[in-house]
Amino acid sequence: MSKLNGINFALTLSSFIGLGLSIYSYFIEQQDESYKAYCDISDVISCSKTFKSKYGTGFGIIEDIFGENFFLNKPNSLLGIVTYSVLIVLSQLNNKPSTTFHFICSILSVILSAFLAYMMVFKVKTICVICLSTYVVNISNFLLSRTKLKILSKEKVKRI
Predict the structure, then answer these.
(1) Is the distance from CB of 62 to CB of 70 less than 8 angstroms?
(2) Which segments in the chain show pLDDT lower than 70?
(3) Domains of the chain by range and CATH?
(4) Among 134, 157, 39, which Cα is nearest to 87's?
């Protein structure tokens, strides 16, 4: 059980970091053009430019598929706030269904991270330090939730 406690702590910490990054991202998005964020280092290294691009809302694809008024066509940071909040709660639960859901959310997050990283570099032509940090959080959550799922699966087998 101590191994699970360590993984739960790491998952919780990682998700809190993701939540903090998402809150900061949302704050930046709400500012006017005169605001200079700490992560706006140059024209190429700019969080604001990335967040305010087409890909900063609904991953740049929700509006194209479902329309502007679709409920998920929100700033990515707002979707991150909701997702990381759910993952924080799921990180505390030591059962296979909640960990499986956490793992599936992590897989989707990694896929979206890869997509957004590609769009950031090749379409928006910027580097966003906050975005890159979020991608690291998503990869960490994926690896940790996979490990937790393996541990829970082994414990189940031992009980039988």
Answers:
(1) yes
(2) 1, 156-160
(3) 2-159 (1.20.1440.130)
(4) 134
